[in-house]
Design a protein that fits this description.
Blueprint lengths: L2 H21 L4 H27 L10 H7 L3 H29 L3 H14 L1 H15 L14
Length: 150
């Protein structure tokens, strides 16, 4: 197995989840279980495996940009970094959809936020928060019970 194969498989898996979230997001099980829990946990397990099996193979650290560049010079660690993005972006996208449903924001309004979250993570989260503020006129984030997967 190569980093390229793992990268491609993780991308395909995440893309399938995003398509399910965007086109099947009205079904509660999609955002609640599949994209909000099952797929992110599988990607998280892959991330942990990548880190445990390849950490320390190259020099580098998180203290400087050069240190991060040195870490990412290992294609396995770079793949782990990409899986990290895939995992958290999908988790945030599923939260956006659950939160939109909870607040009565129409699915079609949330979809551009999801697409932007998929492509550019934090920019999509910012757009969703702006949409959420426009729809609710509040910036308050009320904590959900548990993981908010009800």
């Amino acid at each position: 197995m190569t980093p390229e194969i793992v990268f491609s498989a993780a991308n395909t898996f995440a893309l399938a989840a995003w398509l399910l979230l965007i086109f099947g997001g009205r079904a509660r099980w999609t955002a609640n279980f599949v994209c909000g829990l099952a797929v992110p946990l599988l990607l998280a397990a892959l991330y942990v495996w990548l880190i445990l099996s390849h950490w320390g193979e190259t020099p580098g650290d998180f203290r400087t940009l050069d240190g991060v560049a040195a870490l990412m010079s290992n294609r396995w660690v770079l793949t782990a970094g990409w899986v990290h993005y895939l995992t958290f972006d999908l988790f945030i996208g599923s939260w956006e959809l659950r939160d939109a449903r909870k607040r009565g924001i129409p699915h079609w309004v949330a979809v551009p936020c999801l697409v932007l979250t998929f492509l550019f993570g934090p920019a999509g989260l910012l757009l969703y928060c702006l949409v959420r503020f426009a729809a609710t006129r509040t910036a308050a984030m009320q904590p959900d019970k548990g993981l908010g997967l009800q």
